[in-house]
Amino acid sequence: MIARRLRRRSVAAGLAAAALLLVAPAEAQDFPTRPIRVVIAFPAGGPTDFVGRLVADKVKDILGQTVIIENKPGANGAIGADSVAKAPADGYTLFLSTVGAVAITPNMRTDLPYDVLRDFAAVTLVVRNTTVLVVRADSPVKSIKEFVEMAKSRNGDLPFASTGVGSTTHLAEEMFSTVAGFKFVHVPYRGAAPALTDLLGGQVQAFFADVPAVMPQITGGKVRPIAVASNQRNPMLPEVPTLTESGYPNTSSDNWYGLLAPAKTPPEIITKLNAAFVAAINDPVVKDKLIKSGAIPVANTPDQFGQFLKDELARWGKLVREKGIKEAN
Question: Is pTM beyond 0.70 here?
């Protein structure tokens, strides 16, 4: 009698497990059946928000479901990242992250409530944002050679703006100054807008910025681009050389935006999301708008983005440790 009951329980447990295995593929096959939420860890109206809304609008057409952008700024992206890391792993909550929240901040803080490689699944890299060195349009500096000469002549008192401690703009300054052999005074701001205001006002002499953040000032003739801290020239600034080709190697500091999902999101759903977002990024109209904004469209596989993320964590971690950079309290 006891053996019979045990057999029945075993059969029941097996049927239940089989049912669960059937549910996941069925859910993935029907996905999505309701709106998808994409969390962006920056305020509305900025470059990340622009890219997110542009791509999401096209994904809506591809998947036949609304894609909602939710802005959750704060703590250098950590607030938005943590909210997605703790969300259900069902594909309906995603994170459009910059390099900061998932590759730089984790190397500067030991108290983050999430672990990038443990708590997220890669979907696709979305865009790269070239970092460009700009000075005021009326500056006598017209080339990267003249900039280095000027910087060295200032004997370490060159005020150099960034968008914050540990930002790609700050780390670009650190890499470039080390290779070029000059020192500077780091002046961190809370974003590109106040940094540009002080650059135009003469309080700082130079600024490394994401191309999309300064394209209006470049095209408006208010600032002069000197060089880009990238491995390739930006298509919107084809005449501006890279630091590498100008004789300053190992200075690439591209910002990038990538799409992540909570860990344990079913692979079938990751595949569907990847296909939809890649198609949106490669849409001719979307791609043209991204390029004109100064961003460089990128679309790859989850495996490729996952490996890229690991490489970026290691690369930025090495620089952060060498320079002893810590997030400001």
Answer: yes
